[in-house]
Amino acid sequence: MKTVPPEIGPLDARTFENGIPYATFDILRREDPVHWHEPAGVQAGYWSVTRHEDVVAVTRAPETFSSQVGGTTMEDIADPENVEARRTLIDTDGDLHTQMRRIISPRFTPAAVHKGWTTFVEELVASTLDSALVDGELDAVEQLCAVIPITVLGELLGLPHEDRTTLMKLGDEMIASGDPDHAPRTASIGGPDVRFAGYPFSSPAGKDLWEYADGLRKHRRGNPGHDAFSLLMTGQVDGRDLTPRELDNYFSMLVVAGNETTRMALSHAIQALAENPGEFQRLREDPSLLPLATEEVLRWATPLHHFRRTATRDVELGGKQIRTGDKVIMWYISANRDPEVFEDPYRFDVGRSPNRHLTFGGGGKHFCLGNGLARLEIATTLRMLAERLTSIELTGPVVRTRSNLTNGIKSLPVRVRHV
Fold first, then answer.
1. CB 166 within 8 A of CB 172
2. For residue 208, what is the enclosing H or E element?
3. Backbone angle region of 361, left / alpha / beta, with phi > 0 → left and psi within -120 to 50 → alpha
4. What value does the CA radius of gyration of the chain take, rounded to a whole number of Å?
5. Which end of the chain has the least Cβ crowding within 10 Å, N or C?
């Protein structure tokens, strides 16, 4: 196996805290697109897949590149029982994945999203902007981007208003275990805590989320509502109810997928509009660009840097021989800047077309279930920003999350000028 050449630095959390290492990914796509990476420390080596076409190939071959064997995060989990205990919908293959997905997929069809969420999201975004933009200066993450997704998630799951901020913070802690602001309980050890290996992301926050889901399940027992969590409680797979552990995992997945990633996309959207004022003016002058602008935000932001698969058989990919059991990391953040697919990929272009980004995955069975709802939140926010503002300007440093899994922004100070 080829080892890391000197010009390829570590792809760890601290590297991404300082900015996405695009130069590294450019080298890999060009010179070694399926690259064996041997990190320092106890973590096992893995294949970095960096080209768009190869990421799509891995995504669309679940029988060969499994989500279930080893899970979908880069972390190595030694005990197979812990792998099983932590298994979410994302970490499930085959017919069980199809059945678990089918329980709530009717809530996320285009028709269901349009009918059930359009008015709510429009009113939410309008009221949030009314509050956030009143002074002309704000931290866009705290006052805008963090508010919209967690409110939508709270309504989706029927969560009490007073619990939503706590759940958002637990989600932050769980997926950014090395960040001292988000995860004070684990940042001192640099990441996952093996004492919590049986919980999501080996995080004490994962344990807390499970306990919250247990309480929610007990409260709803015998008196379910019309929310998605109640739907999960009454749904079945293989003729049986979901187990308490399956419900815990489904809940923790929804907290991240339904909140964290959309917040990140909105944050990067505002930063991009501030740094590319000409593109903001294009959108203001031509509202018909809104659908294209939404897709460009998704490509530009790429909230999830990567997902993992594990090879179930020997197979060739990109001219390399992948062995059974090898860990394979699909770098969406690299694929979404592939010049073979995207002309001038480092330009933020609100009119980009076509735009075959892989932000929601490369297609196949694991395509993001909530993509329509996320698109609605982003598009509505972009539209109302363009209607209300003439400019957005950065007024201070953009503070990134310390994570090589998610493309988070913790602070985004801006000044806005109203129409």
1. no
2. helix 204-220
3. left
4. 21
5. C
